[in-house]
């Protein structure tokens, strides 16, 4: 990389330790510095335009430069730039937002607790679940089951629930009481001759076997994303969710839906839970809650959970958990405005309609060499590359070809993300059909470059 001594890139290398980055590679290659965004596009320092095919990190649902969000933040900054919710205090925007979220919830929910990120919200969930079972005098019912390839964040507890090797290796994770059951990826883990429904039955049987082996009286909760995101965009096989929920109901195990990616239109419905008929006891949301213009996340809890937490807080004298910035009024004001825009512009319907166009377009790549599987729903999708299509053999090492493809996409003005050799798509919900076509044309060029490179 040739960057000038005082450039942003060289100062980035000098001073900034990046998340999710190979630090040594970064020292030699440096960053792509993004300086501006407008709609679905971002621009680098040289003025080069890119389609943000991932909406940042599956997050900027309204795209860049939405004036109404800027105005909502400015207005709230003037009125009350900060307040908290400890010790019976509160700011109005956080109350308005809590009320609105309860109204939007796909199942009857009782209360909303706020945090700042998906990881923090999921850490709160772990503590809520443990506290809940202590409150109910079931101190042994503490284990939480998530899934291999599930993604729930990176803090100590949420990173433990995440089921990806890079989030555990050398971080001394997972902590105790966190278990991982099978990943419901039919293409990868379905057996020869096994139907999707039979595969789903086997996934539910795996879960039930784990519960029985551990002892149902020790298992407190099951956490899952309706569609797995960072694990590779894995859409559950037909009948999966009804079978999983039947197992959980049998053993009095709480169901936590991690809607951090799926929530607010991504799957073409308000929540992934609606798309897949999930009836959670706890729901977690972040990212598109504020279109990611400011950090805010939320945990919604059902009344049976709230009642136990409330009783125990009265017994102890306080609920000894909460963040300085939880329900931050400026973040809450921006989130409220975001939700208003979703409704006024009917963006969930829009995501469903344009999502069909995206899915059809992506499936147009299924016949290409090295494309093993194309999958997705709504405005989330992935193209998985394999060394041998018939045998579904992955490349060795996994991720090298995916990274090459993403690099070529960037050269053609499209920012995507490879999860191993699966290249993910999650554009802003505001994307139009014509812009989807533009995005897929750029992707097609990158795919051709990759095919040439592999030939
Ligand atoms: N849960 C899911 C499903 C996510 O996709 C993510 C982040 O991508 C998180 C939790 C963690 O959120 P954050 O990065 O805001 O901590």
UniProtKB/TrEMBL annotation:
Cofactor: pyridoxal 5'-phosphate
Record SUPFAM superfamilies: PLP-dependent transferases (SSF53383)
GO MF, one annotated term: pyridoxal phosphate binding
Presence of keyword Magnesium: no
Example GO BP: biotin biosynthetic process
Alphabetically ordered keywords of this record: Aminotransferase, Pyridoxal phosphate, Transferase
Entry similarity comment: Belongs to the class-III pyridoxal-phosphate-dependent aminotransferase family.
Protein name per UniProt: Aspartate aminotransferase family protein
């Amino acid at each position: 990389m040739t960057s000038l001594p005082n450039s942003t890139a060289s100062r980035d290398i000098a001073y900034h330790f990046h998340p999710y980055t190979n630090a040594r590679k970064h020292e030699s290659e440096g960053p792509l510095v993004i300086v501006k965004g407008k709609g679905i596009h971002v621009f680098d320092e040289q003025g080069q335009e890119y389609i943000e095919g991932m909406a940042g990190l599956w997050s900027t649902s309204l795209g860049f430069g939405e004036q109404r969000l800027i105005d909502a933040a400015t207005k709230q900054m003037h009125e009350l730039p900060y307040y908290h919710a400890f010790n019976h205090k509160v700011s109005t925007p956080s109350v308005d937002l809590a009320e609105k979220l309860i109204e939007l919830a796909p199942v009857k929910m009782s209360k909303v607790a706020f945090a700042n990120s998906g990881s923090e919200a999921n850490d709160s969930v772990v503590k809520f679940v443990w506290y809940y079972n202590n409150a109910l005098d079931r101190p042994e019912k503490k284990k939480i089951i998530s899934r291999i390839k599930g993604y729930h964040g990176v803090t100590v507890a949420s990173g433990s629930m995440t089921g990806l090797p890079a989030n555990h290796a050398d971080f001394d994770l997972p902590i105790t009481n966190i278990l991982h059951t099978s990943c419901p990826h039919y293409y990868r883990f379905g057996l020869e001759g096994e139907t999707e429904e039979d595969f789903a039955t086997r996934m539910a049987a795996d879960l039930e076997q784990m519960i029985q082996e551990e002892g149902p009286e020790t298992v407190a909760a099951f956490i899952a994303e309706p569609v797995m995101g960072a694990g590779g965009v894995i859409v559950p096989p037909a009948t999966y969710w009804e079978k999983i929920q039947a197992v959980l109901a049998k053993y009095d195990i709480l169901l936590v839906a991690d809607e951090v990616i799926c929530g607010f239109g991504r799957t073409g419905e308000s929540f992934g839970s609606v798309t897949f008929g999930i009836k959670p006891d706890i729901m977690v949301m972040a990212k598109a809650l504020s279109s990611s213009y400011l950090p805010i996340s939320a945990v919604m809890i059902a009344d049976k959970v709230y009642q136990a937490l409330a009783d125990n807080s009265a017994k102890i004298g306080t609920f000894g958990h909460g963040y300085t910035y939880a329900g931050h009024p400026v973040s809450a004001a921006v989130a409220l405005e975001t939700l208003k825009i979703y409704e006024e512009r009917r963006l969930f319907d829009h995501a469903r309609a344009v999502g069909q166009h995206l899915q059809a377009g992506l499936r147009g790549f299924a016949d290409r060499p090295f494309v093993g599987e194309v999958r997705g729903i709504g405005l989330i999708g992935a193209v998985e590359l394999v060394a041998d299509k018939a045998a579904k053999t992955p490349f060795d090492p996994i991720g090298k070809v995916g990274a090459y493809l993403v690099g070529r996409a960037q050269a053609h003005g499209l920012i995507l993300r490879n999860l191993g050799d699966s290249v993910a798509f999650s554009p802003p919900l505001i994307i139009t059909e014509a812009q989807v076509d533009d995005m897929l044309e750029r992707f097609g060029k990158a795919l051709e470059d990759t095919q040439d490179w592999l030939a």
